[in-house]
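1st attempt posting a full record on here, be nice pls
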Amino acid sequence: MQHVDLLIIGGGPSGLSAAKMAAESGVKSLVIERNSKIGGQLVKQTHMFFGSEKQYAKTRGINIAEILIQDCMEHKDMISFMTETTVVGLYPDYVVTVMDRNHQYSKIKAKTILIATGASEKVLAFENNDLPGIYGAGAVQTLMNVHGVLPGQDVVMVGSGNIGLIVSYQLMQAGVNVKRVIEASSVIGGYKVHASKLKRLGVDIQTQTTIKRANGKEAVSSIIVQRLDDDWTFVPGTEEEISVDAVCVSVGLSPLSNLLSMMGCEMKYVSALGGHVPVIDQSHETSVDNIFVAGDVCGVEEASSAIVEGYYVGLIIGNKLGKPHPHYEHLIQDFSQQLDNLRSGPFGEKTRTGLKELRGDQHA
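the predicted structure (as tokens):
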């Protein structure tokens, strides 16, 4: 059995930034990643980020991934990786069972575990939603931005959050005809700057409208959309058929928190944070001693927040293991302030509300 000081489950933005900060504190870590590449969702994000220079503003997601990976490579003696490896068991004695790319099982015992598994896409129930040609937004990004494959030529985007708007724009950049963006809510969910880009290109963003049914035999060939009233009920007589060869569904994310439940961590359903999230204290430690979380697994936010949370929690873990970072006090205040700034303003209200519900007003 392999023994490690810190086991990080998830090689996305929060896992990588935590590994770097733990290494600077003198803590060796092992990062487990189920995909063949580390970097998480950043490796498929071609758009430039907002925020401040500290959160890599005006840098494309794929380039931020390279920065975070390079940061870890500078600590090769402190950070190890196991890619194409899946965690299949997590036990109260801090033993983790993993399955590698060759389907071989092994066990790892850790002093401390950071779960940074991110989030998964929510699905939308409608008739024939399993027809070929109906994708989640993450799958479309993977096809286009990682493998250079277009999902179709005539697409309708379902969902107007930031991911839906950004992926719609990327589809158009790739030459795809985005026929419409439909949104069940009465308001556009994402940043207005993203919505404005689409509108300038002639894409209609139709609110209070949802997909009712997909048509086709071997693959989707058209969809039926219909208006909703203020009570989210179909408005009779408003059905409309749209010819498509692909549909992209982007209706939100849910924290990927299954491992935390397996470990017996106290969980709570907080709608504003995306679903079931672990109950944590200010240090991001769960109800189980030495089990920490960072990133979307403890509340869905932007990738910038996940990166900063990783740095923040990496510092705290180093301190708890008796190896405080030489600039601990300064950095912990800096990262805390960065998180406050990212969660300020009207678009941070949802996160602030969720954190208040999860932790109580005194910590939000």
